[in-house]
Write a structure and sequence with these properties.
Elements (H helix, E strand, L loop, with lengths): L3 E2 L10 H7 L15 H20 L7 E4 L2 H15 L4 E4 L5 H13 L3 E4 L10 H10 L4 E4 L13 H10 L3 E5 L18 E5 L10 E5 L14 H4 L7 H16 L1 H22 L4 E3 L10 E7 L7 H7 L2 E2 L1 E2 L12 H6 L5 E7 L6 H16 L2
Parallel strand pairs: 1-11, 3-4, 3-5, 5-6, 6-7
Antiparallel strand pairs: 2-8, 7-8, 9-10, 10-13, 12-13
Bound molecules: pyridoxal-5'-phosphate.
Length: 378
Protein backbone atom coordinates (compact mmCIF):
# COMPACT_ATOMS: atom_id res chain seq x y z
CA UNK A 1 0.00 0.00 0.00
CA UNK A 2 1.27 3.46 -0.96
CA UNK A 3 1.43 5.55 2.20
CA UNK A 4 0.48 9.23 2.25
CA UNK A 5 2.41 11.31 4.75
CA UNK A 6 0.56 14.46 5.86
CA UNK A 7 2.22 15.02 9.22
CA UNK A 8 5.06 17.30 8.20
CA UNK A 9 4.56 19.59 11.20
CA UNK A 10 5.59 16.62 13.37
CA UNK A 11 8.68 15.93 11.31
CA UNK A 12 9.83 15.88 7.71
CA UNK A 13 11.74 13.49 5.51
CA UNK A 14 15.48 14.11 5.43
CA UNK A 15 16.50 15.58 2.08
CA UNK A 16 18.98 13.27 0.32
CA UNK A 17 21.20 16.29 -0.44
CA UNK A 18 21.32 17.01 3.29
CA UNK A 19 22.33 13.42 3.95
CA UNK A 20 25.07 13.73 1.32
CA UNK A 21 26.41 16.83 3.05
CA UNK A 22 26.34 15.10 6.44
CA UNK A 23 27.82 11.77 5.34
CA UNK A 24 31.56 12.64 5.36
CA UNK A 25 31.26 13.60 9.03
CA UNK A 26 30.12 10.07 9.88
CA UNK A 27 33.00 8.52 7.94
CA UNK A 28 36.31 10.18 7.00
CA UNK A 29 35.90 13.49 8.80
CA UNK A 30 35.31 12.13 12.27
CA UNK A 31 37.69 14.36 14.22
CA UNK A 32 36.76 15.95 17.52
CA UNK A 33 36.40 19.65 16.70
CA UNK A 34 38.31 20.57 19.86
CA UNK A 35 41.43 18.73 18.65
CA UNK A 36 44.20 20.93 17.29
CA UNK A 37 45.51 18.51 14.63
CA UNK A 38 44.16 18.30 11.08
CA UNK A 39 41.15 16.03 11.81
CA UNK A 40 39.96 18.48 14.44
CA UNK A 41 40.65 21.54 12.32
CA UNK A 42 38.57 20.08 9.48
CA UNK A 43 35.51 19.53 11.63
CA UNK A 44 35.94 22.86 13.43
CA UNK A 45 35.94 24.51 10.02
CA UNK A 46 32.75 22.69 9.03
CA UNK A 47 30.99 23.86 12.21
CA UNK A 48 32.06 27.48 11.82
CA UNK A 49 31.21 27.50 8.12
CA UNK A 50 27.71 26.29 8.99
CA UNK A 51 27.37 28.93 11.70
CA UNK A 52 28.49 31.66 9.31
CA UNK A 53 26.06 30.54 6.66
CA UNK A 54 23.13 30.52 9.09
CA UNK A 55 24.09 33.90 10.56
CA UNK A 56 24.22 35.36 7.08
CA UNK A 57 20.84 33.85 6.19
CA UNK A 58 19.27 35.36 9.36
CA UNK A 59 21.14 38.68 8.90
CA UNK A 60 22.90 38.46 12.20
CA UNK A 61 26.40 37.60 13.45
CA UNK A 62 27.89 34.11 13.94
CA UNK A 63 28.60 34.85 17.61
CA UNK A 64 24.85 34.97 18.23
CA UNK A 65 24.19 31.48 16.81
CA UNK A 66 24.39 28.43 19.10
CA UNK A 67 23.87 24.82 18.06
CA UNK A 68 21.76 22.63 20.34
CA UNK A 69 20.23 19.16 20.27
CA UNK A 70 16.67 20.29 19.40
CA UNK A 71 14.09 23.06 19.54
CA UNK A 72 13.07 21.96 23.03
CA UNK A 73 16.60 22.40 24.34
CA UNK A 74 16.87 25.81 22.68
CA UNK A 75 13.70 27.10 24.35
CA UNK A 76 14.69 25.60 27.72
CA UNK A 77 18.12 27.26 27.52
CA UNK A 78 16.68 30.66 26.58
CA UNK A 79 13.89 30.71 29.15
CA UNK A 80 15.99 29.33 31.99
CA UNK A 81 18.85 31.69 31.19
CA UNK A 82 16.54 34.71 31.05
CA UNK A 83 14.99 33.98 34.44
CA UNK A 84 18.17 32.78 36.15
CA UNK A 85 20.72 35.23 34.76
CA UNK A 86 18.82 38.23 33.42
CA UNK A 87 16.69 38.69 36.50
CA UNK A 88 13.34 38.25 34.82
CA UNK A 89 10.54 38.69 37.35
CA UNK A 90 7.52 38.36 35.09
CA UNK A 91 6.97 35.93 32.21
CA UNK A 92 4.23 36.60 29.67
CA UNK A 93 3.24 33.73 27.41
CA UNK A 94 0.07 32.26 25.87
CA UNK A 95 -1.93 29.18 26.85
CA UNK A 96 -1.36 27.60 23.43
CA UNK A 97 2.43 27.50 23.29
CA UNK A 98 4.25 24.23 22.66
CA UNK A 99 4.87 22.31 25.88
CA UNK A 100 8.61 22.98 25.53
CA UNK A 101 7.71 26.58 26.40
CA UNK A 102 4.62 26.12 28.57
CA UNK A 103 6.06 23.55 30.95
CA UNK A 104 9.37 25.43 31.19
CA UNK A 105 7.56 28.68 32.06
CA UNK A 106 5.44 26.92 34.66
CA UNK A 107 8.52 25.27 36.18
CA UNK A 108 10.47 28.54 36.28
CA UNK A 109 7.58 30.50 37.77
CA UNK A 110 7.22 28.03 40.62
CA UNK A 111 10.93 27.31 41.12
CA UNK A 112 12.02 30.96 41.18
CA UNK A 113 8.75 32.38 42.45
CA UNK A 114 8.16 34.54 39.39
CA UNK A 115 4.91 35.97 38.06
CA UNK A 116 3.45 34.14 35.06
CA UNK A 117 0.75 35.72 32.87
CA UNK A 118 -1.11 34.27 29.91
CA UNK A 119 -2.10 36.68 27.19
CA UNK A 120 -5.76 36.46 26.08
CA UNK A 121 -6.62 34.92 22.75
CA UNK A 122 -8.95 36.36 20.15
CA UNK A 123 -11.66 34.47 18.29
CA UNK A 124 -9.53 32.27 16.07
CA UNK A 125 -6.78 31.73 18.59
CA UNK A 126 -4.69 34.72 17.57
CA UNK A 127 -2.91 36.63 20.29
CA UNK A 128 -5.00 39.52 21.60
CA UNK A 129 -2.43 42.23 20.90
CA UNK A 130 -4.34 44.80 22.96
CA UNK A 131 -4.15 42.49 25.97
CA UNK A 132 -0.44 41.90 25.39
CA UNK A 133 0.19 45.64 25.35
CA UNK A 134 -1.90 46.07 28.50
CA UNK A 135 0.13 43.36 30.28
CA UNK A 136 3.33 45.08 29.22
CA UNK A 137 2.07 48.50 30.32
CA UNK A 138 1.12 47.19 33.74
CA UNK A 139 4.16 45.03 34.37
CA UNK A 140 6.79 45.94 36.90
CA UNK A 141 10.29 44.48 37.05
CA UNK A 142 12.16 42.80 34.22
CA UNK A 143 9.70 41.06 31.89
CA UNK A 144 10.10 38.28 29.36
CA UNK A 145 7.58 37.69 26.56
CA UNK A 146 7.66 34.23 25.01
CA UNK A 147 5.31 33.66 22.09
CA UNK A 148 5.65 31.20 19.23
CA UNK A 149 6.04 32.45 15.68
CA UNK A 150 3.60 29.84 14.38
CA UNK A 151 1.40 27.45 16.28
CA UNK A 152 2.24 23.84 15.49
CA UNK A 153 -1.37 22.62 15.81
CA UNK A 154 -3.55 25.27 14.18
CA UNK A 155 -0.94 27.16 12.15
CA UNK A 156 -1.73 30.65 13.47
CA UNK A 157 1.15 33.03 12.89
CA UNK A 158 2.28 35.75 15.23
CA UNK A 159 2.87 39.27 14.02
CA UNK A 160 6.56 39.17 14.93
CA UNK A 161 7.16 42.81 14.03
CA UNK A 162 4.35 43.98 16.26
CA UNK A 163 5.38 41.91 19.30
CA UNK A 164 9.01 42.76 18.76
CA UNK A 165 8.21 46.50 18.73
CA UNK A 166 6.02 46.22 21.86
CA UNK A 167 8.88 44.48 23.64
CA UNK A 168 11.25 47.20 22.57
CA UNK A 169 8.85 49.93 23.66
CA UNK A 170 8.26 48.40 27.10
CA UNK A 171 11.84 47.19 27.55
CA UNK A 172 10.88 43.52 27.77
CA UNK A 173 12.92 40.55 26.61
CA UNK A 174 11.41 38.60 23.72
CA UNK A 175 11.83 34.89 23.02
CA UNK A 176 10.10 33.30 20.05
CA UNK A 177 9.73 29.61 19.31
CA UNK A 178 10.24 29.61 15.54
CA UNK A 179 10.42 25.85 15.18
CA UNK A 180 7.55 25.82 12.65
CA UNK A 181 8.75 28.80 10.63
CA UNK A 182 12.54 28.65 10.27
CA UNK A 183 13.16 26.99 6.92
CA UNK A 184 9.63 27.91 5.82
CA UNK A 185 10.05 31.68 5.72
CA UNK A 186 13.08 33.92 5.40
CA UNK A 187 14.10 35.54 8.67
CA UNK A 188 15.69 38.96 8.99
CA UNK A 189 16.88 39.43 12.55
CA UNK A 190 18.45 42.80 11.75
CA UNK A 191 14.95 44.27 11.50
CA UNK A 192 13.48 42.74 14.65
CA UNK A 193 13.98 43.26 18.35
CA UNK A 194 14.32 39.59 19.29
CA UNK A 195 16.41 38.41 22.23
CA UNK A 196 16.12 34.65 21.77
CA UNK A 197 14.86 32.47 18.92
CA UNK A 198 14.52 28.67 18.81
CA UNK A 199 14.64 26.53 15.66
CA UNK A 200 14.85 22.85 14.74
CA UNK A 201 16.20 21.24 11.56
CA UNK A 202 13.86 18.25 11.36
CA UNK A 203 10.90 20.50 10.55
CA UNK A 204 12.40 21.47 7.18
CA UNK A 205 13.99 18.29 5.83
CA UNK A 206 17.04 18.42 8.07
CA UNK A 207 18.15 15.83 10.63
CA UNK A 208 16.39 15.14 13.92
CA UNK A 209 18.28 16.14 17.05
CA UNK A 210 19.64 19.31 15.47
CA UNK A 211 18.50 22.58 17.03
CA UNK A 212 19.57 26.17 17.04
CA UNK A 213 19.32 29.01 19.49
CA UNK A 214 19.84 32.62 18.54
CA UNK A 215 20.87 34.76 21.49
CA UNK A 216 21.12 38.48 20.90
CA UNK A 217 24.57 39.68 21.93
CA UNK A 218 23.10 42.04 24.56
CA UNK A 219 22.04 39.05 26.63
CA UNK A 220 24.75 37.30 28.59
CA UNK A 221 23.33 34.08 29.96
CA UNK A 222 25.19 31.26 31.65
CA UNK A 223 25.36 27.74 30.20
CA UNK A 224 22.70 25.20 31.12
CA UNK A 225 25.02 22.26 30.37
CA UNK A 226 28.36 22.41 32.16
CA UNK A 227 31.58 20.69 31.17
CA UNK A 228 33.76 21.51 28.18
CA UNK A 229 34.05 24.88 26.50
CA UNK A 230 32.12 24.04 23.33
CA UNK A 231 29.81 26.58 21.74
CA UNK A 232 31.87 29.40 23.26
CA UNK A 233 31.30 28.03 26.75
CA UNK A 234 27.53 28.06 26.30
CA UNK A 235 26.88 24.38 25.75
CA UNK A 236 29.32 21.73 26.88
CA UNK A 237 29.59 18.43 25.00
CA UNK A 238 31.37 17.27 21.86
CA UNK A 239 29.62 18.83 18.90
CA UNK A 240 27.32 16.78 16.68
CA UNK A 241 29.12 17.89 13.53
CA UNK A 242 27.02 15.98 11.01
CA UNK A 243 23.83 17.43 12.47
CA UNK A 244 25.22 20.96 12.50
CA UNK A 245 26.26 20.64 8.85
CA UNK A 246 22.82 19.12 8.16
CA UNK A 247 21.07 22.11 9.71
CA UNK A 248 22.92 24.57 7.50
CA UNK A 249 22.43 22.47 4.36
CA UNK A 250 18.71 22.02 5.00
CA UNK A 251 18.35 25.77 5.50
CA UNK A 252 20.31 26.49 2.33
CA UNK A 253 18.07 24.18 0.28
CA UNK A 254 14.89 25.49 1.87
CA UNK A 255 15.79 29.10 1.15
CA UNK A 256 16.93 28.34 -2.41
CA UNK A 257 13.45 27.29 -3.49
CA UNK A 258 11.38 29.06 -0.83
CA UNK A 259 9.05 31.07 -3.10
CA UNK A 260 8.32 28.13 -5.36
CA UNK A 261 7.81 25.63 -2.51
CA UNK A 262 5.61 28.03 -0.58
CA UNK A 263 3.30 28.59 -3.55
CA UNK A 264 3.13 24.85 -4.23
CA UNK A 265 2.43 23.83 -0.63
CA UNK A 266 -0.07 26.66 -0.15
CA UNK A 267 -1.99 25.37 -3.18
CA UNK A 268 -2.09 21.88 -1.65
CA UNK A 269 -3.53 23.30 1.56
CA UNK A 270 -6.15 25.31 -0.37
CA UNK A 271 -7.07 22.25 -2.41
CA UNK A 272 -7.58 20.09 0.67
CA UNK A 273 -9.55 22.82 2.41
CA UNK A 274 -11.88 23.46 -0.53
CA UNK A 275 -12.45 19.79 -1.31
CA UNK A 276 -13.10 18.82 2.30
CA UNK A 277 -15.61 21.64 2.74
CA UNK A 278 -17.47 20.38 -0.34
CA UNK A 279 -17.31 16.71 0.66
CA UNK A 280 -18.06 16.83 4.39
CA UNK A 281 -21.04 18.67 5.83
CA UNK A 282 -20.60 20.66 9.06
CA UNK A 283 -16.86 20.59 9.36
CA UNK A 284 -15.10 23.54 10.93
CA UNK A 285 -11.69 24.95 10.18
CA UNK A 286 -9.55 25.65 13.20
CA UNK A 287 -7.33 28.68 13.60
CA UNK A 288 -7.01 31.86 11.58
CA UNK A 289 -7.14 29.94 8.29
CA UNK A 290 -8.02 32.91 6.11
CA UNK A 291 -5.82 35.31 8.05
CA UNK A 292 -2.23 35.08 9.21
CA UNK A 293 -1.76 31.33 8.85
CA UNK A 294 1.13 28.99 8.14
CA UNK A 295 0.91 27.50 4.64
CA UNK A 296 1.99 24.07 5.85
CA UNK A 297 -0.85 23.34 8.32
CA UNK A 298 -4.61 22.80 8.01
CA UNK A 299 -6.48 21.85 11.17
CA UNK A 300 -10.00 20.58 10.62
CA UNK A 301 -12.69 19.88 13.20
CA UNK A 302 -14.94 17.06 12.05
CA UNK A 303 -18.38 16.81 13.65
CA UNK A 304 -18.11 14.25 16.43
CA UNK A 305 -19.94 11.01 15.79
CA UNK A 306 -19.25 7.27 15.59
CA UNK A 307 -17.47 7.54 12.25
CA UNK A 308 -15.19 10.46 13.14
CA UNK A 309 -14.14 9.36 16.62
CA UNK A 310 -11.59 6.92 15.22
CA UNK A 311 -10.86 8.91 12.07
CA UNK A 312 -7.09 9.27 12.41
CA UNK A 313 -6.78 5.57 13.24
CA UNK A 314 -8.97 4.56 10.33
CA UNK A 315 -6.96 6.81 8.03
CA UNK A 316 -3.80 5.13 9.27
CA UNK A 317 -5.26 1.75 8.33
CA UNK A 318 -5.69 3.18 4.81
CA UNK A 319 -2.05 4.36 4.84
CA UNK A 320 -2.69 8.04 5.57
CA UNK A 321 -0.59 9.59 8.33
CA UNK A 322 -2.14 12.61 10.04
CA UNK A 323 -2.07 13.96 13.53
CA UNK A 324 -4.59 14.45 16.32
CA UNK A 325 -8.11 13.24 16.40
CA UNK A 326 -8.29 11.54 19.75
CA UNK A 327 -11.69 12.22 21.25
CA UNK A 328 -12.68 11.57 24.81
CA UNK A 329 -16.02 10.41 26.08
CA UNK A 330 -17.02 13.71 27.69
CA UNK A 331 -17.22 15.30 24.27
CA UNK A 332 -14.25 17.55 24.86
CA UNK A 333 -11.30 17.37 22.50
CA UNK A 334 -8.91 14.66 23.56
CA UNK A 335 -5.41 15.72 24.38
CA UNK A 336 -4.95 19.02 22.63
CA UNK A 337 -4.47 21.97 25.00
CA UNK A 338 -4.51 24.22 21.94
CA UNK A 339 -7.96 23.17 20.70
CA UNK A 340 -9.29 23.12 24.26
CA UNK A 341 -8.14 26.69 24.86
CA UNK A 342 -9.29 28.14 21.55
CA UNK A 343 -12.54 26.19 21.20
CA UNK A 344 -13.62 25.29 24.76
CA UNK A 345 -17.20 24.46 23.81
CA UNK A 346 -16.78 22.71 20.49
CA UNK A 347 -17.68 19.08 20.10
CA UNK A 348 -15.45 18.09 17.23
CA UNK A 349 -12.70 15.67 16.32
CA UNK A 350 -9.66 17.75 15.37
CA UNK A 351 -7.32 16.47 12.67
CA UNK A 352 -4.13 18.25 11.67
CA UNK A 353 -3.05 17.82 8.07
CA UNK A 354 0.43 19.20 7.44
CA UNK A 355 2.13 19.37 4.09
CA UNK A 356 5.53 19.46 2.45
CA UNK A 357 6.85 19.95 -1.08
CA UNK A 358 6.90 16.15 -1.44
CA UNK A 359 3.10 15.85 -1.30
CA UNK A 360 1.10 15.77 -4.52
CA UNK A 361 -2.35 16.88 -5.63
CA UNK A 362 -3.17 13.21 -6.26
CA UNK A 363 -2.45 12.51 -2.60
CA UNK A 364 -4.71 15.35 -1.51
CA UNK A 365 -7.54 14.07 -3.71
CA UNK A 366 -7.08 10.54 -2.42
CA UNK A 367 -7.21 11.75 1.20
CA UNK A 368 -10.45 13.65 0.56
CA UNK A 369 -11.92 10.53 -1.03
CA UNK A 370 -10.88 8.39 1.95
CA UNK A 371 -12.08 10.87 4.58
CA UNK A 372 -15.42 11.27 2.80
CA UNK A 373 -15.75 7.50 2.48
CA UNK A 374 -15.05 6.95 6.17
CA UNK A 375 -17.35 9.72 7.36
CA UNK A 376 -20.23 9.36 4.97
CA UNK A 377 -20.44 5.56 5.06
CA UNK A 378 -22.45 5.28 8.26
N1 LIG B 1 8.10 24.04 19.25
C1 LIG B 1 7.24 23.75 18.27
C2 LIG B 1 6.29 24.80 17.79
C3 LIG B 1 7.23 22.48 17.68
O1 LIG B 1 6.37 22.20 16.72
C4 LIG B 1 8.16 21.53 18.14
C5 LIG B 1 8.17 20.16 17.57
O2 LIG B 1 7.42 19.33 17.91
C6 LIG B 1 9.05 21.89 19.16
C7 LIG B 1 8.99 23.15 19.69
C8 LIG B 1 10.07 20.93 19.68
O3 LIG B 1 11.11 20.80 18.75
P1 LIG B 1 12.12 19.57 18.83
O4 LIG B 1 11.37 18.38 18.35
O5 LIG B 1 13.25 19.90 17.95
O6 LIG B 1 12.51 19.46 20.27
Amino acid sequence: MQRIYLDNAATTKLDSKVLDAMMPFFTEQFGNASAIYSYGRETRMAIEKSRRFIAQAFKTTPSEIFFTSCGTESSNTALQGAVRDLKVEHIITSPIEHHATLYTCQYLASQYNRKLSYVKLSEHGQIDYGDLEKLLQETSGKTLVTLMHANNEIGNMLNLERVSSYCQEYNALFHTDSVQTVGHYPLDLSKLHIDFLSASAHKFHGPKGSGLLYINKNNQIKPSILGGGQERNMRAGTENIANIVGFAKALELAMESFEEDKAYVQALKERLKTKLITAIPNLVLHGDVDGNSLYTILNVGFPMNDSTEMLSMNLDIQGVCVSGGSACTSGAQGGSHVIRNVYPNASVVPIRFSFSKHNTTEEIDRVVELVAGLINKQ
